[in-house]
Amino acid sequence: SQQGEEDPQALSIQEGENATMNCSYKTSINNLQWYRQNSGRGLVHLILIRSNEREKHSGRLRVTLDTSKKSSSLLITASRAADTASYFCATDASRDTGRRALTFGSGTRLQVQP
Amino acid sequence: DAGVIQSPRHEVTEMGQEVTLRCKPISGHNSLFWYRQTMMRGLELLIYFNNNVPIDDSGMPEDRFSAKMPNASFSTLKIQPSEPRDSAVYFCASSFGDFSYEQYFGPGTRLTVT
User: Which of A37, A61, A110, B95 could form a disulfide linkage to B101, CB 3.0–4.6 angstroms apart?
Assistant: First the structure.
């Protein structure tokens, strides 16, 4: 499986509910980023968390990182219809792989029903 | 700021034709990335420039693909000759810093090769 795999692949919730998406990866990382992609648009950066950080907040977003489990989660609280999008995690694993590039996961498609 | 600008937004061409995609990064950014997104393979990095110099081109599929960055405000991705399997959305992104920094994506070019 690839570096940076999100689960679930798809998630449908009602407006006002919380949405949690998970990302697992295989190698050591320097940082992990989350991006959002609305249908037919480019990706938009949401948040970056470094390997020595455990939790980060930005507005209604909360990201956690567990390097021992090689996993991260993105929590969107009080979801809105406008949060409907695909969400991707991206990892910088250059310390382990030597490749100077972010590796993107396959994404979670979030549908928020009004 | 206008953001990352890509042209054309849509391109339909016949197999065997040359295709040139263009990108103008955000002013002041010193890294530029070309990605390809398909349903089957997800988002793949094709090439990464830093200060106009190609740093990682290991994702370029084959010799039919070439990329240039003649100056800090312009880059091209060329496919010659194009094949139906090249059909995808091609994104350009830029960042203020190296690949590990947050990346700003353009709207993408949807390429269809018939």
Answer: B95
